């Protein structure tokens, strides 16, 4: 998908100067996951343990799979059992203007505070939210989607959808393969589950 939503039978969407107007004609219910990539090896690729850990999640294939263009994110999606629909730079590393204010390893509390205190961080959050709406509005009801990204970006991506979520439900920061399952009803995002992963399940 792109940053700009396409029209479909469920809604009509218009974005002008980053302002979005949505006129809903039907209700969709989509479950999607935002996950950090699995365990990396000595190179930029997943390690054997990382591949085993992803396969141990026993996920059914997703209907839409978008990952960072970085190899380990793409390999994670395949190891989770799904073909990649596309890669998108927006799921890559955090923008530099965000990283200079909040280190990628800072965790949920720091990112949530930065969204409130720094306009450029909140603008990043808004761009992420528009990206998700663009992708998810075009899915059929009851379809599932997977987005694979990186440390720091995953926390921001989750907060883009759930800015008021109780972050005490989450770890301080996400580890490999962790993230969130979220429900999108065509208008609102709702936390479905916090995704925690035991790294020992790969053994």
Written description of the protein model:
This protein is an alpha/beta fold and 203 residues long. The protein has 6 helices and 8 strands; from the N terminus they run βββαβαβαααβαββ. β4, α2 and β5 (86-87) form a beta-alpha-beta unit.
In summary, what is this structure?
The protein has 203 residues and is of the alpha/beta class.
Offer a few descriptive terms.
8 strands; 6 helices; alpha/beta; two-stranded antiparallel ribbon; 203 residues; 6-stranded mixed beta sheet; globular
The ordered H/E elements are: EEEHEHEHHHEHEE
The share of residues in extended strands comes to 15-25%
Number of helices: 6
Largest sheet: 6 strands, mixed
* Category from helices, strands and their pairing: alpha/beta
* Contiguous uncertain segments of 5+ residues: 4-25
Question: What number is the mean pLDDT?
Answer: 89
User: Roughly how many Å is the radius of gyration?
Assistant: 16 Å
